[in-house]
Amino acid sequence: MSKPLEVPTMDMENKEVLRRIEIGGDMLLNMGPQHPSTHGVINFLVQTDGEVMKRAIPEVGYLHRSIEKIGERCTYNGFMPYTDRVDYIAAMFANQGWAMAVERLLGLQVPRRAEFCRVIACELNRISSHLISVGTMAMDIGAVTPFPYALREREFINDLLEELCGARLTYNYLRIGGVAFDLPSGYEDKVSTFLDHFEKILDEFNRLITYNEIFIKRLAHLAPIPAQMAIDYCLVGPNLRASGMSFDVRKALPYSVYPDFEFDVPVGKGEVGTPGDAWDRFWCRVEEMRQSCRILRQALAQLPKDTAIMGKVPRKIKIPEGTEAYSRIESARGDMQYYVVAGPGENAHRVKIRTGSFTAMGIIDALSRGLMIADLVALIASLDVVAPEIDR
Amino acid sequence: MTFEEIQQRLAAKFGERIGALAPANKDPFLVVPAADVVEICRFAKEDEALAFDCLMNLSSVDWPKKNQIEVVYHLWSYRRRHSFVLKVQLDRAKPEVPSVESIWKSADWLEREQYDLMGVTFTGHPDLRRIMMPDDWVGNPLRKDYAEQPQWHNITTTRDNSLEGYVRLDELTKKAAEAAAAAKKELPQ
Amino acid sequence: MQGFIDNLIRGWGYDPASWPWTQFVYVAFMGLFSFIVINFAAISGGIFSWAERRIAARMQSRVGPNRVGPAGFLQWIADAVKLLFKEDLIPAEADNVLFRAAPYFMMVGFACVFVALPFSHRLIVADMNIGIFYILAVTALIVVGIIMSGWSSNSKWSLFGAIRSAAQIISYEIPAGMALMIPVLLAGTMSTQGIIRAQGPWPWQWFIFDNPAATAGFFIFFISALAEGNRTPFDLPEAESELVSGYNTEYSGMRFSYFFLVEWGNLWVMSALAVTMFMGGWQVPFLPAERLDALTGWVAFFAEVASVMIFALKTLFFVFVVMWLRWTLPRIRVDQMMNMCWKYLVPASFVGVLFVAGWMLVVRSAPAVGIAMHFLLAGAAAVAVVLFVQRVANNLRDTGDKFDFTSNW
Question: Residues C1-21: pLDDT tens digits?
Fold first, then answer.
């Protein structure tokens, strides 16, 4: 097919990229792939004169596990655990995206109680994902203490989700047509107790780090992304909302039972710096945790009493070849989209997962000119990039 | 605007080159010729009524039976809050389509991913190189007829199925037990 | 020290002035005292590493080391033993001589300071009349050690850390030095014992409350000392999240432990200097320095112990404050750190010295003003402490927490 490639040896690894970076006296640094703060296995080729960067080129693919190719081999039900691994920090959302896409292919209706279970699980997962995001961001800036505080709260959520579905990280809780398990008895009280405790902790967290003078000095005015640039590079989620664009899939294209709930969408206003800077992205995530608490309280109050948690799903899911469906959900990292084309047998012909972190990596090269290395770390942390989502 | 209205607006501008909207097999889409995709996308972005300011997703699907590779563009408009699906059908032997990176910057990485994994060449892309696989990888993994290379820099890409290993181990143990029993029988009493 | 040794020689029946072995005895005893003090420095470094880990854990809702010995107290010994047993690793491309020598430069720079630290009114190894000047000069050896280690490691990341650290330490020596000139001006001598004797045992007699410029000088010195010791918020040279450990990335085993020994031992040095210069050192309340010198017998021994305890407690309090800051504050960026030094601290310290010089003239002609200022500033500090405690109590109440000293140790 293609002309035979001369296979280069290990010494020529950087030559491909060296051709593209005009070095001329600058240092070429490899930040990664093993680095304490690149949020996963990502490499950055940094051309710098010592402290100020000329370019930072991200190199991904170290965590590529060909999940999309596996989707062409698995049955529709069997693919659910693989979607957990697409974003293992916010696994419920990946589950939900896949479930919604296949339910659209089948034309399936999900029972109301199952939808409420999904919302409760997903909002709890959103809080725990944002806790990791803000905790590690504070740690990357140098304040180590907020990280264990965030993890301590996340332990409560881990316990709640373990009680719900048996797992602490990769849940495999949702099923095509519903959820796997119903809420255990006494679960609503446990979640309420946690919410009462957690909202006060959020205030303590704000006092500790969000409005800390040094933290603001590090993050304000750092890499402000204008709304138009964010849209052009297709940033989603808190990154987009921090730039001033008020768009949340739960409000704009409501799915599941979100229309029944009342909640705000935090939008970055440049409270301590430029609108769309790193501090706004941090603040958006903290405020979203507060809104998730609101949604959870309403969901617990409106939980229907009937018991059906699975719809009428055929034993073997077979869909006519060529049927395609698209699902969009608001994941913790933004607008996660599944494009599924059904195959001839019991599996899909093509699964494409479009994640927020993938396009966020595309913008780093453009934003990094003229930043310092410490700023690059803060920028990556503020975009809340997780490597498994980028590489799938 | 609904899908039908968007298709009508595109047909009004481009006439013959836009076909009819494909019937909704759960989700409708519009097939456009590969040579016109840049012009159509630019109109879709700049037209006031359409205003598709975001390329949400760019995927490619391999249809070996039809001898085609489809590149699927999912467009979204933040201003008008409507979406649309464009498809380009390419010859599987030489899949080439002009790049839309000059229209939406998000196409930069999305097209690189499809170049890497499916082998679609996007002409006019400023930096078309592999993104997931190593730079010197041979082949396009997402193709239906993809065969993995046996090794990469002396690292083997296959591994024995551990069940087969256990079966072999069982046979060896059985043979050793039989040999021991036979040797015991031959011992002088 | 010399008087003590002279008394000893006379006790043996010789006259120090004419005995031919006097100098050797001096040197031998100097060596002995230095040996004791260096051991104190090293062991205190180890103990602070344990203390920091437990305090940090408590602040972070964790437990910290609690297996090795009671409350994990032997953890630092276990770590030291482990590091001793590790493979002696030197990167192939590293400069052999410099790589090996760098930790020792840091150890020397750090250990020499202890010679001039006054632990009590008689316990000081060498009471030089250029005491504070000597201390400032000797701590500069640490920079040499850091640059050597970063350069000789032959690694870009180590080089980054070393250059950042050198820039930081050299820059902050200026405000530190100028801020330390304020107590020198107020006391009229550079000898550390002299500066302590010029203060009094009660808080309102300390130099920190002498005049507003002295208070500012204390804070300038404290911030600069944090920067000199590579402690957060100035720990850029070791910023783990950026540089994977900076200038000591390539070090392992005992050499690695020397860097950390110096860092933790520096906590004592920073705090002891702050206490000596600004907070009255070993002065015991109710016992002015002259009466302390005149005591004899068992009372003198207990007074000695009391003054050492007071010095140690004040120093340990500041050690705790330095640890507290490390686990609360984020890290400052390199350019912000240089900005702060050259644009804010250096001019402020110069203005402070000029103000103190002018203030001394004012006080000489009107002593009552000086005394009034002492009480005014001490009172303001007491009010600030009360407000701080109130704020902490409010925060605890808002979070629904209880202030709990007894559990989770």
Answer: 677 777 778 887 777 777 787
